[in-house]
Amino acid sequence: MIEKQQKTIAGVMFSGGLDSAATLVYALNNYDKVLPICFGIGGTQQRIEAIAQEKVWRMLSKTRHYKNKLLLTYSVNVKDVFRHSQSALQTGKNFVEGEYDEKAHEAFNVPYRNVVFASISTSIIESFVTGAYDEYNGWRGVVLSGVHGRDNGEKTYLDCEESCWDTLNELSRNYTYSKIFTEAPFVNLTKAGVVLYVADNAFCDWRKLIKATASCYNPTSQDEPCGKCPTCIERTQAIEKAEKEFR
Ligand SMILES: [Zn+2]
Q: Cα(165)–Cα(159) distance, rounded to whole angstroms?
């Protein structure tokens, strides 16, 4: 967490998945105002994520402890940026089922995506603290991502690594005269660790909150998670593991 000297508005890259919902909780616990920033990327996950975004937002905005802290979601359409991406997430083809392995890692990779999101989020927050809204003029900003590590030193995407977020933090600080920081609070936690963070720190029913999140790569036509893609499996295992440790 960055040192708190002045009022801070936090922009959270928010997909509606477990990790980004946990990041919203973290931001609500630590900063004065929180702006969820949602990126419309098209592809297979879009609908199920939009439903989850709405549910999570509602639940947190109704939480008494977070009263008046959570701002309306800021939606950004970046569909065209990823229009030609060959990731299975965008093409909807060549899905890989089962746990994350080398093959799945490759199939779902969208290089640089988190960096694109972080850059756009920094620009949005920068406009908030430099006069777009009188209320936030002169505040400090922070941009947060819910990236996390994997179990047993498994490979993560390059833009989920700590070095990437250290670099982004340095860039945002240097380019905004230290008005905007970048933070990835869970970068050294596993996904189960992220669930435990929510269990220990959310001021709402944490199981209900986790249940409201969604992040399936290949949802059914009824917008239900498939249960078979790497992200569904990783999510289920993390929740089970966290439940065991929580008791
Ligand atoms: Zn799935």
A: 8
